[in-house]
Each structure stands twice: as structure tokens, then as C-alpha cells.
Design brief:
The protein has about 575 residues and is α/β, with parallel strands linked by helices. Helix content is about 30%, strand content about 15%. It has 17 helices and 16 strands. It is globular and about 60 Å long. The chain binds 2-acetamido-2-deoxy-beta-D-glucopyranose (6 copies). Its EC number is 3.1.6.-.
Length: about 575
């Protein structure tokens, strides 16, 4: 099928039309980036769609993220995968998880698999083009072998953890079902205990600030590619999942539910991180030359595993589900290059588009042999175009016991099958209006007093209609009661939605369209992707990962010699066996 040529033709035409207006654009944009831009990506973990306040919630505010959103471009239709490992794989490879074998669930710490070693990462590409590449925070793309880990996958520097998540203070991960527990925090390849007892959001923020300061101290000799993958607001180990510093909690005493109060504080500390990063870039005079992106890896978990009270209101579903609540991220991007700063961009963009899009911003053309699924939307983004018809494979997971898929082309979305026997299929999150952040009384003044706002105004000032943008970023559901819905039972038949008119997936159009070419073309395309999917890389847990064998560290166990007392018993048994066999022979 000639989908990709068709699409590139559209963008090519767009580029020609846009070229005609370039003269004007330069004048409007004022300051152009000179040389390759610094790329700064801040990614939250499991942040709900409605857990930023730029979409209208006053339950708890995120003034720095909001200031970035209003100063830059709100990515109103940024789609990720519904879970962490697939989403991060798509970000770093520019490919659908079904094309790299990363589509099924996530890597549990004891499992010996990862992003295939023959895949090229975004970090490889930027490093190969003269960038310093730095990962601060979470990896979660494999650690059973040393070669799976970030500094062997294109990152010059890594400070953070390799597995799924850690404790916010002691940086340990417990796999309760197997009784494995160990510390998981490293600087490059070495376990790092320097920060034990410090709050991890602050550790990661400080490390990002240090990277920015170092970069400036080295006279900006290389442009910086910085991926700041926060733990926040993901839950920590089951024994104590919600963790926030006392000074952050004190701002949220009006929230009665304790879990929700902790969640608000976890998000709020994350919000402050965005402020500190922007401050550092401003202090080092790097803002002008930087592209700043904020997003979440997937939707928030309202129910079930690692639930945090996250809310994807008013969207359907949540993390680990095929619905919009699992895959639509509240995201924003800023660069002095953008012609329409202070706008809501409705173009659909997939997390895998970020690689080719940001590469294009840096004048890098990825090798066509990489066969990326992501599209280069840089010129559409730069000039505010919204007309590229995008197809997106959100999820195709054929792995038993619960096969499910979600696919979009243009305004049409198909969902078939679901997760957790349908437990996450409802409208799960709410917008709490009974408990209101006192700062929302002076919302606009609060935003305009953030350092993010003040710094970004200095380099790309101009009128911004804060309340207008907040209004535009609000999602309205057509139906207000379930009686008005046309139900979808995805375990019985596929469902079809017009996602533009019905972002809340209330009105299933399958019965109406099932015999038409609209549905049949979509279905055929989905079958094609399914048939060509790479088999999932997942492997069952391997007991030799047990951190007890490796000084209580989670490590690349397949490359390590177990060394401490827990293993000496194993060693001696091995020795006895060896002696025995020698005796036999
Ligand atoms: C990596 O290797 C796998 C298995 O051999 C293969 O299916 C896949 O196409 C390879 N990927 C790349 C990018 O070469
Ligand atoms: C880390 O902290 C958690 C929660 O307080 C606790 O359950 C766990 O035992 C601690 N682990 C280590 C290694 O200190
Ligand atoms: C920084 O780089 C510029 C341009 O290469 C050079 O002119 C300047 O002397 C350098 N400054 C320092 C402190 O190295
Ligand atoms: C603005 O921010 C500063 C520094 O954070 C603070 O001291 C001041 O009270 C704030 N002003 C208003 C009006 O919120
Ligand atoms: C801001 O946007 C709102 C809603 O779109 C509109 O009603 C208002 O007139 C705008 N204000 C200004 C100053 O443009
Ligand atoms: C769709 O096609 C089937 C089989 O050809 C037919 O029985 C059914 O009535 C058609 N439904 C609609 C809504 O046209």
C-alpha cells in the first residue's frame, strides 16, 4: 500500500506552499536558531491527561508546565503507546512497537529481554551528528545484558535507573511476587548510592541542571540532546507507593484523600522541575537555541496496577488500555523557530514521529534504511499546519490471553479486543471540582509570575491569550449521560469512532459503517500490520537476576559473575557437581 508516499507527497506540497511565506516567517519569528538546536525532552511517567492544569482543571495546578504550554504550542493530539516500554521504544526508534517486538506489556525487571540490539536509537543518531546525548532518569528498555543499557545505546551519559520504577528515596525496586529486591540507580555503568535518601525528582532535576551548566562551561562545543525521564508521578513499590516531600505536601492540605494529596504533590514537584530546567537554560543563555518538549509516556492509571488517582478526564480508559485515556498525552513544545507560538496544534502526531521531526529540526536526515514508521512533521509544526492525514498504529497486541488493537487513520479510530477483561473500558477519571487549588483564584497572575513564563517571554515574547488557550485545550464530550451513548463491546465486535467529533469514544459507529469501504479499508490495513508484526521479544523471568547474588544491585546478570554470600552456596554446589563429573570421567 502506498500510504507513506501518499503522505510524503502531502508534506512536500505543504512545504512548497510554506516556502512562499518564509520571508514573512523569519520576520515574525524574530530570533532564529543558529547552528544545531539543543533538544530538551522532559517526559513524565504515567501522568494523567487531566493532571496538568492547562486543560482547565483547578484541582491542583501545574503552573510551570502550563506556562510552557501557553508560551509554546500545545500538542493537542500527541499519541503515545498505552504502556511504558512500548512507548519508550517508539520514542527512541521512531518505529511502531509491533515492528521492533516491543508491543507486549513491559519489561519486568527479572526478564532477559530488551530493545533489540540491532535497532538504532534516537541517541545513536544525534550522537552520530555531533550531539552530546544525555539520559537522566528512567530507561526500561532492557538491562539483562550490559549491551542493552543506555550508555551502550547511544547515550554519552546516564544517571538513573534501568528497570520499571524505584523507591523515591532509597532507589530500590522490589519484585514482591518473586522476593527479589535491590538497588537500581547508576551513574553510567556504576551503581550510585550518593543520592540515597534524597527525593528522586530533585535528584534528576539537579542532574539535568548540571548537564546544562556543564554544557555551557564547555563553551557549548556540542549541541545537547537531553532526555529527562522522570519517575514522577509513577507509583513506587507497593509497600509505600505514594511518596512526596513534606514541603510539597503542605501546599495541598485542602485535598482530603491522602492518596490524591500525595499524587498532587508528586505532580507539583515534577512541575517545579520544568521550571528549574528552563531557569538553567536561561541562565546559560541557551534558551534561544533550544527546543523544549514536555510529554507523558502514556495515560495515567486510575485503577488497578500502580493506580495513583491519576485522571484522564474526560477521555475513556486509562494506561494499559486501547482507549484515548491510555494513549493521548497532554504535551507541549516550545522553540523560537515556531511561527505560531501561543497556539493549540490539532495535527495528530505519534510519539514515533518525534525522532524524524526533531532530527529535521537539527538538519539531520535519518538513514532511509532505518525504515522509520514515524513521519517528519517539522515543517507542519514550525508553520502551524494541521493537514497531514496521519495513520497511527496505537497498539496491536496479539499475545494471549487478551488480544487487542487500536488504530487511527484521520478521524477514524478502530478498537477491537481490550485489556483486563474490560475493567478499564469505562470513563474512569474525574475532574474534581469540590476541592480547588487556592492559587486558581489568580490563575493568570500565577502563570505570568512563573520563571518559565518570564524567561520564555524574554526570548519569544508577544501576546498570549491564556484563558483563550485554556478554553481551546479543553475537551468536550458530545454526550453527557450514558443513555446517549451507542455502546461498544470490543470483546464481541470491533468498534469504530469518529475521534474528531467524539474524542470520548461514546458513539460506536461500527454497525452503521461495517459494510462500507470506510471500515473495510481500515480493517484491511490493520490486518496487514498484524500479519507483518515482529513477534514479541518478551521472555519469562530468570531467577539468576536476583540482586541478592550481586551485592543487592539490579544488574546485567547475564554478563556478571555472581559474587556474594548468597551465591557461594550455589558455587559450592557447582563445584561439587564439577568434581563429581571429573570423578565419573
Ligand atoms: C533485527 O534483527 C531481527 C531478528 O533477526 C530482525 O527481524 C529485524 O528486522 C532486525 N532489525 C533491523 C533494524 O535490522
Ligand atoms: C526502601 O524504602 C521502602 C519504602 O519505604 C522500603 O519498603 C524498602 O524496604 C526500602 N528498601 C531498602 C533497600 O532500603
Ligand atoms: C568559546 O568559543 C568561541 C567560538 O568558538 C571562541 O571564540 C571563544 O574564545 C571560546 N571561549 C572560551 C572561554 O573557550
Ligand atoms: C511571584 O513570584 C515570586 C518569586 O517566586 C514571589 O516572591 C512573589 O510573591 C510572586 N508574586 C505573585 C503576585 O504571585
Ligand atoms: C481570548 O480568547 C477568548 C476565548 O477564545 C476570547 O473570548 C477573548 O476575546 C480573547 N481575548 C483576547 C484579549 O484576545
Ligand atoms: C451488511 O452485510 C450483511 C451481509 O452481506 C447483511 O446481512 C447486512 O444486512 C448488511 N448490513 C447493513 C447495515 O447494511
Amino acid at each position: 500500500m502506498a500510504m507513506s508516499t501518499h503522505l510524503s507527497k502531502i508534506s512536500h506540497n505543504a512545504a512548497i506552499i510554506l516556502l512562499l511565506t518564509t520571508g514573512l516567517v523569519v520576520v515574525l519569528a524574530g530570533t532564529e536558531i543558529s547552528g544545531k538546536p539543543n533538544i530538551i525532552i522532559i517526559m513524565a511517567d504515567d501522568l494523567g491527561f487531566d493532571d496538568v492544569s492547562f486543560r482547565g482543571s483547578n484541582n491542583f495546578l501545574t503552573p510551570n508546565i502550563d506556562a510552557l504550554a501557553y508560551s509554546g504550542v500545545i500538542l493537542n493530539n500527541l499519541y503515545t503507546a498505552p504502556m511504558c516500554t512500548p512507548s519508550r521504544a517508539a520514542l527512541l526508534t521512531g518505529k511502531y512497537p509491533i515492528n521492533t517486538g516491543m508491543q507486549h506489556y513491559v519489561i519486568v525487571n527479572d526478564q532477559p529481554w530488551g530493545l533489540p540490539l540491532n535497532e538504532t536509537t534516537m541517541a545513536d543518531i544525534f550522537r552520530g551528528n555531533g550531539y552530546r546525548t544525555s539520559l537522566i532518569g528512567k530507561w526500561h528498555l532492557g538491562m539483562s545484558q550490559r549491551n542493552y543499557t543506555p550508555t551502550l545505546r547511544g547515550f554519552d551519559y546516564h544517571l538513573g535507573y534501568l528497570g520499571a520504577y524505584v523507591d523515591y528515596y532509597n532507589q530500590s525496586y522490589e519484585q514482591v511476587s518473586k522476593g527479589y529486591r535491590g538497588h537500581d540507580f547508576r551513574e553510567n555503568l556504576k551503581p550510585n548510592h550518593e543520592h540515597v535518601d534524597k527525593y528522586v525528582t530533585d535528584i534528576l532535576t539537579d542532574a539535568a541542571v548540571r548537564e546544562i551548566d556543564d554544557h555551557a562551561a564547555k563553551n557549548n562545543s556540542k549541541p545537547l540532546f537531553l532526555l529527562l525521564n522522570h519517575l514522577a508521578p509513577h507509583a513506587a513499590n507497593d509497600a509505600d507507593p505514594m511518596q512526596a516531600p513534606a514541603d510539597e505536601l503542605s501546599g495541598f492540605e485542602y485535598i482530603r484523600d491522602e492518596t490524591h494529596r500525595y499524587y498532587a504533590a508528586m505532580v507539583s514537584r515534577l512541575d517545579k522541575s520544568v521550571g528549574h530546567v528552563v531557569d538553567a537554560l536561561a541562565r546559560q543563555d541557551m534558551l534561544q537555541n533550544s527546543i523544549l518538549l514536555f510529554l507523558s509516556d502514556n495515560g495515567g492509571p486510575t485503577l488497578g496496577e500502580h493506580a495513583t488517582t491519576a485522571s484522564n478526564y474526560p477521555l475513556r480508559g486509562q494506561k494499559n488500555s486501547p482507549w484515548e485515556g491510555g494513549i493521548r498525552s497532554s504535551a507541549a513544545i516550545w522553540s523560537t523557530e515556531f511561527e505560531r507560538l501561543g497556539s493549540v496544534w490539532k495535527q495528530q502526531i505519534y510519539i514515533g514521529d518525534l525522532l524524524p521531526t526533531l532530527a529535521a529540526a537539527a538538519g539531520i536526515s535519518p538513514d532511509p534504511d532505518l525504515r522509520l514508521d514515524g513521519l517528519n512533521l517539522w515543517s507542519a509544526l514550525k508553520y502551524g499546519y494541521e493537514s497531514v492525514e496521519r495513520e497511527i498504529v496505537h497498539v496491536i497486541d496479539e499475545e494471549a490471553p487478551e488480544p487487542h488493537l487500536a488504530y487511527t487513520r484521520g478521524k477514524w479510530k478502530v478498537v477491537s479486543g481490550t485489556t483486563n477483561s474490560g475493567r478499564y473500558d469505562g470513563w474512569l477519571g474525574e475532574r474534581v471540582t469540590t476541592e480547588v487549588d487556592p492559587r486558581s483564584q489568580e490563575y493568570e497572575a500565577l502563570i505570568q509570575n512563573t520563571s518559565v513564563w518570564l524567561q520564555l517571554q524574554k526570548v519569544s515574547g508577544g501576546e498570549r491569550n491564556i484563558s483563550g488557550l485554556r478554553q481551546q485545550a479543553r475537551i468536550e464530550c458530545p454526550a453527557t449521560t450514558e443513555d446517549e451513548h451507542t455502546p461498544c463491546l470490543p470483546l464481541e465486535a470491533p468498534c469504530l469512532f469518529d475521534i474528531e467529533a467524539d474524542p470520548c469514544e461514546q458513539n460506536n459507529l461500527y454497525e452503521e459503517y461495517k459494510n462500507t469501504t470506510v471500515f473495510q479499508d481500515l480493517w484491511q490495513r490493520v490486518q496487514q500490520f498484524t500479519a507483518q508484526a515482529h513477534p514479541p521479544n518478551n521472555k519469562p523471568g530468570d531467577p539468576s537476576c536476583n540482586p541478592a547474588f550481586y551485592h543487592n544491585e539490579w544488574t546485567w546478570w547475564q554478563d556478571e559473575t555472581p559474587s556474594n554470600s548468597a551465591f557461594s552456596l550455589k558455587n559450592s554446589i557447582f563445584l561439587i557437581l564439577l568434581l563429581n563429573s571429573w570423578w565419573i570421567f
